[in-house]
Amino acid sequence: MGLTDRQRRAALDHGTSKCVTAGAGTGKTHVLVRKYIDLLESGKSGVAGILALTFTEKAAQQMRERVRDAVAEKSGPEWDAVRDDLLWANISTFHAFCARVLREFPLEADVEPGFSVLDEREASRLREEAVDDLIHGDPPRTCRDALACTLRAVGAYELKRYLLRLYEKRAAAEEFFVALERDEGAVIAAWQEILERQKEAIMREILPAARPGITVLADCAARYPGEADPAMAYLRAVEPHLPLLVPGHPSGEACRALTALAAINDDGRFRAGMGRKKNWDERDLEGVRDAYRALRELTRPYSRTLTLSIDPEDGFTQTTLDFLHSLGVVFSVFLEAMEATKMRRGALDFSDLILCTRRLFRDCDEIVDAHFRNRFEFILVDEFQDTDPAQAAIIAAIIGEFAAEKGRLFVVGDPKQSIYLFRDADVTQFKRTRDVIAEGLGGEEVRLDINFRSTPEVVGFVNHIFSSLMAESTRPWEFAYEPLRANRTGDAGSVEILLCPKVDVRDAGRRAAAEAVARKIQRMVEAEEKAISEGDDRRPVGYGDIAILLERRTNLIYYEWALRRYGIPYHVYAGLGFYRRQEVCDLYNILRILVNERDDVALYGALRSPHFGISDARLFVVADSGHRSTPLLERLRRFAAGEPESDVMAAVELIESWQGVARRIRPAELINRIVTDSGVYATYGGMPEGEQVIANIEKLIDIVRALQEAGSDLDEIVRELELCIEGDEREGEAQPDLASSDAVVVMTVHASKGLEFPVVVVPDLSEPPLPETSTIIVEEGLRLGVSIADPENDHERVNTPILSVLRDEAREKNEAERKRLFYVALTRARDHLILCGVVPDRVPESASTCRTRIDWLAFCLGLCEDIYAAGGVEFFPPAPGRPIRVDVCTAPDTIPAGVRAATPALLTPPEDPRPVESPPAPEAPVAEERIYSVSELERYLRGQEVEDDDARTRGLIIHEVFRGRDATTVLRRYGVDDPGVAREYVSVYEKFWRSPVVQGAESDHCEVPFRARVAGVVFTGFIDRLLRRPDGTWILIDYKTGRVDDRDLPAKVREHALQMAVYRRAAEGILGGPVRTYLYFTDIGRFVEVPEDEGVLGLLRQAVRGIEESSGIRPGRYGGRLR
Fold first, then answer.
1. CA–CA separation, 381 vs 35, rounded Å?
2. Lowest mean pLDDT among 140-144, 469-473, 932-936, 1097-1101
3. Which among 329, 408, 492, 1009 has the fewest CB atoms less than 10 Å away?
4. Under a CB-based contact definition with an 8 Å cutoff, are residues 160 and 129 in contact?
5. Which positions ≥6 away from 784 have C-beta within 8 Å?
6. Helix, strand or coil, per DSSP, at residue 129
7. How far apart are CA 523 and CA 540, in angstroms?
8. Are strands 884-889 and 494-500 parallel, antiparallel or unpaired?
9. pTM given for the model
């Protein structure tokens, strides 16, 4: 492949530094490799003098292979030497380069010379343990007051999140806390400046778009006096502020006027349909209404920020500073604990590699000058749009002050493909580096503009859409779109939009959209509707040519369902989360049961899995056959005893057989035994994705085997898997051999970056963006914002002004990244592009008023009834070329397609080479003492109760969330994937921690198991929570769910008096001192203390005697003696 003129200038001109902006499919990797080879060929440098960096090991390996392949084509003794040198070439990831630097200069970098690098799973576990020990353990005396202050302000759940986020951004966090301790006033001044800059930025953003509406309002205000109707009253309200919003007025006055306008637009007296037609010229009234709507849409996202101020004398400002001082103390202790833990292990985590290298290069310039600037004559960086500030600083340090003389820096990237904001990638670094190269280093920007990947239809469509969506570049994270030219002018492609009717039920709409995609794919392949080009040949599209690219994983289950329904083979690609796969969660649930048979949550999930196949209706009957306080497995056993030939008995026998060997054989062998005994492979064999499922099970076994070889037992392995699942660790799925597979690929857009497919389907265009809900944001430049309790506002959580500013900024950054993510999705298509969404309500007036991706298309294409009736729209793209036709289908449910069953496949279980370990001989039985649970006694005294299944589930969820587990993860186990519901549970938990009863707790223990003898009877159970208050008092808390009125509380206390008496004695036996007991009613957020009542022991004795007599047991048979 030759070079275009621009590619040649970028790759072969070594006289100046270059910033190569490479649009999708323009051959940037080819240019980078040619640059490397030409530096060698021209004698400008040897292999040792070139540092080539990228961001993933896969990309680094690809670069190494391409360079080696290019060198392999050269002949001569000098190239033989180059081939030998390439074995030690400096082509690597940033992290690998930094690891080499630190190993070369460990003492100067203050790291252990022989350090190891923690994998992300181990590093995450260490962070979790350190923060839990600090919050729930016995913290150092130096931070106890600070810890109590932070817990009062935000609670344990939020404080944990704060500390983990601060650790991720610890360079910026440490900078902030040092500045705060040094000069509080300077921090406040910096905040005030940040707030004013944000207001000015909002003004620049809003006013150009607002001025047409302002002009209309000013004109009508002059011609329509009085307040004869609400529209005229609106004109009177805004009239004094309109003159201040025209160009030329000081920004401060304009800002105050815009703030007033935002408040007026939020006034309930004024609405979009205000005004009486008899008082108005029709066009004027519509103009006022349109202006009101437009201004309200523009100002609404910023109305809160525009009214903000930071007053050093304000009470909330002082509360904020006090909290941040305390947070700094707690974070410092947490950081010390983490560093001590890593030092003991002689280890660094991945972020340490970058941060320690940056610190070394910053503090030891003489080392950089002597060992790196002179060593590397040229620095080549791929995917530069994905850098963060620390990585950019490392590059800048190596370049030094003399790069302009040699043209040493060559960076390649596409800022339109920067999609890793969630990993703290900072696309503004690309713009800064581009400007430094052009202005500071005397270099230039080279823009590659010829797309070699896609057909003219796809390229033209992308140009048309993003010339509108990416027209602005005023903000640092925005980049104006440069149209591309298609190189494949002789190939024909297509663009099609499927629009489903709008429905009120969200799940039904998602199923309809997934079904529309499946119908389209089946029809396209089986009717050979589309063809793709391969060189000079064209052939029909097959299933293996198609990729479905999801913006988020939320709706994956709908597409798997639809593809199975229509008999379409598919493969879920890496990036969707190995630990989120159902087959992994199913096996994890079974292992949890084998570790703790009282884990009802895990058992519910396992019984519904293919390993047992018990239906929800059947499971409900089983669960309802006994009281909820009885462990589910016990209810299962009792139910099975009455139906010995049932599926329930089969489940019980399987579980008990695995329990018998769980502690006797190795965990990897145990999993093999589970999947073999359950016959689950026969089920998976009938599934289109069965091959993927088997590969994932094999991978899980490999992971467990590695853990067991490292010394982990079954309990530790279950805990490790729990951390991975709850942390949603992004482990890639196992990859089956798909070389000969003809299957649709389903993947996230993020996972698709760098790939291409003949046919790309982009669904879910009508899904709204996720809201910005961060309660802590920390950035460089003393920008740290938090949400804390405000004592002057009934301790309600309030965002600090800086958090509001940073959330505004985050919302804008996220919006810009969503556009870039959309660009990446569309540009993966080589021949054909299919998009799917819901028919939009209207055509947005501007890109800034669009909320969803379908709104973007509606705005750019003018989607309306005329286009729907015509079946599409035609336009000329901004770059030269033929007109582009976009087909639009508004009835995808009429696409001819048939529902089919998948063909079963024979799948062979993976084998574990480990020999079976013989179980030891069974021990002789021993006499047992009868053991009771409190609920068993209460049930006897009150009679059998029928409890609502939803209430039972809510209780289980509450208990897990109150243990500090992530609400979203917990809810997913119960089949709920709704962020709104998760926020409700988090709110309940936060309200619990804001209560004076628990605030300031110095020690906190959840789900405390006990075995205690009370009045001669042995009880076992779990205490929901034990807390030690600052005065040393221990309190015991038991959660109660369900709505209750205040007048019902005394009866509830009496109802649970027996339980609390037993729990009190158990806790006092554990702690060796007195305990106060409380019931906490979660739905109303009320604590009620339960006084000690010796009289309930009589009820205890009565219940025990009654149970023994009704069971035909002689009193005292089990060795207990009632006192």
1. 11
2. 932-936
3. 1009
4. no
5. 172, 173, 176, 324, 776, 777, 778, 802
6. helix
7. 12
8. parallel
9. 0.73
Is the pLDDT confidence value at 610 over 80? yes
CA distance 648 to 645: 8
Number of H helices, E strands in the chain: 42, 29
What number of CA atoms fall less than 13 Å from residue 285's CA on the CB side? 14
| Cα 1001 to Cα 248: distance, rounded to the nearest angstrom | 57
Q: How confident is the model at residue 690 (pLDDT cuts 50, 70, 90)?
A: low
- Rounded to the nearest 10 degrees, the angle between the axes of helix 170-182 and helix 184-223 is 100
With bands split at pLDDT 50, 70 and 90, how would you rate the model's confidence at 956?
Answer: confident
The span from the CA of 889 to the CA of 513, in Å, is 13
Identify the structural domains of the chain with CATH numbers, from first to last.
Answer: 5-115+347-448 (3.40.50.300), 120-182+312-345 (no CATH), 189-307 (1.20.120), 486-574+743-894 (3.40.50.300), 578-726 (1.10.486.10), 932-1111 (3.90.320.10)
Quick one: which H or E segment has residue 913? none
Residue 976 has pLDDT above 50, yes or no: yes
1060: nearest Cα among 1091, 1087, 1103, 1083 = 1091
Which residues, 6 or more positions from 508, have their beta carbon under 8 angstroms from its beta carbon?
A: none
Whole-angstrom distance, CA of residue 803 vs CA of residue 162: 13
In the β-sheet with 757-762, what is the strand arrangement from edge to edge? 570-572, 744-748, 546-550, 757-762, 829-838, 494-500, 884-889, 872-875
Q: Which residues of 598-628 are buried (b: 16+ CB within 10 A; e: fewer)?
A: ebbbbbbbbbbbbbbbbeeebbeebbeebbb
Mean pLDDT for all residues in the chain: 85
pLDDT digits (tens, 9 = 90+) for 1068-1105: 887 778 999 999 999 899 999 998 877 777 778 788 88
- Give me the phi and psi of 412, to 5 degrees please: -125, 140
- CA terminus-to-terminus distance, the chain: 93
For residues 495 and 831, is the Cβ–Cβ distance under 8 A?
no
Cα(671)–Cα(696) distance, integer angstroms: 13
Nearest to 838 by CA among 881, 891, 784: 891
**Residue position matching structure tokens 């898997």:** 721
Total residue length of the chain? 1123
Q: What is the model's pLDDT at position 914?
A: 37
837 three-class SS = strand
C-alpha dihedral sign at 1059, 1065, 1068, 1074 = positive
Is the CB of residue 298 less than 8 Å from the CB of residue 261?
Answer: no
The strand pairing partners of 954, in sequence order, are none
Helix axis angle, 184-223 to 315-345, nearest 10°? 130
Task: Give the C-alpha separation, 902 to 687, whole Å.
Answer: 6
Q: Rounded to whole angstroms, how far apart are CA atoms 776 and 425?
A: 18
**From CA 966, how far away is CA 347, in angstroms rounded?**
28
Q: Where are the alpha helices (DSSP H) in 276-314?
A: 282-299, 303-306
Spatial strand order of the sheet with 409-413 comes to: 90-93, 50-54, 378-381, 409-413, 18-22, 444-448
Looking at residue 772, the DSSP 8-state letter turns out to be: -
> Any idea of the CA torsion for 750, 753, 757, 762, to the nearest 10 degrees?
40
Q: Name the phi and psi angles at 837, rounded to 5.
A: -160, -165
What average pLDDT does this structure show over 518-534? 93
- What are the Cα distances from residue 279, in Å, to 225, 232, 288, 372, 736? 11, 9, 13, 78, 72
For tokens 């350090």, the residue is 115
Give pLDDT, residue 881. 65
User: CA 964: distance to chain centroid?
Assistant: 18
Contact at 8 Å (CB) between 443 and 819? no
